[in-house]
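My main concern about presentation is that the manuscript never shows what a single data entry looks like. Each protein is reduced to its one-letter sequence and a matching series of backbone shape codes. For the editor and my fellow referees, an illustration may be useful. For illustration, here is how one protein appears when written out as sequence plus structure tokens:
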Amino acid sequence: MGNGVKDFTDLDLWKMARQLRSEIYKASKTFPKDETYALISQMRRPAISVTAKIAEGYGRYSFQENAQFCRQSRASAYELCDHCTAALDSGFLSKKVFDDLNALSISVIKFLNGCIRATMTRQQNAKKST
């Protein structure tokens, strides 16, 4: 991948998604205990999936597979946005925390969109050079 990237943990995208995951865990710790197997679990699963799919896509050697895992990661980030809205509506998140989580989620989504576009461009360029 170049630019000093030796592992998926070197990717700026993965680092941003890791921050999102960490913030989701921190915020969900304040939820009522009876939400442990409900909204807390529903929020943590896609937060984990966002970083896991980035890592899994990194491990693939096909442009199509890499882009597909980025799309799956993006879908998990959108799912997370909806869960954050549910947490706000339920009074489990303050408007400020919601806004911060939502902004970080949208940043991850935009970054993923850029990675998908770049991957597809690299695929097209690779086809042209063969």
Remarks:
- The CA atoms of residues 52 and 73 lie 8 Å apart.
- Helices lie at 12-28, 36-58, 63-89, 95-128.
- The mean pLDDT is 94.
- The domain at 19-128 is CATH 1.20.1440.60 (de novo design (two linked rop proteins)).
